Amino acid sequence: MPETRHLEAGTPDATDAALDCLARGQAVALPSETVYGLFADATDPAAVARIYAIKGRPMFNPLIAHCCDAKMADAHGVLNDPAKVLAKAFWPGPLTLVVPRRFDGRPVCDLACAGLDTVGLRVPSQPALSEIIRRFGRPLAGPSANRSGRLSPTTAAAVAEDLGGQIEIIIDGGETRIGIESTIVACVDDTPRLLRPGGVPAEHIEAVLGETLAASDSHGTPQAPGMLASHYAPSAPLRLNATDVRPGEALLAFGTDIPDGYQNAVEVLNLSPRGDLVRAAANLFRYLRALDRHQPEAIAVMAVPETGLGVAIVDRLQRAAAPREDEVRR
Ligand code: TXA
Ligand code: MG
Question: Given 3.40.50.11030, 1.10.1530.10, 3.30.70.2190, 3.40.50.620, which CATH number is that of 238-329?
Answer without folding.
Answer: 3.40.50.11030
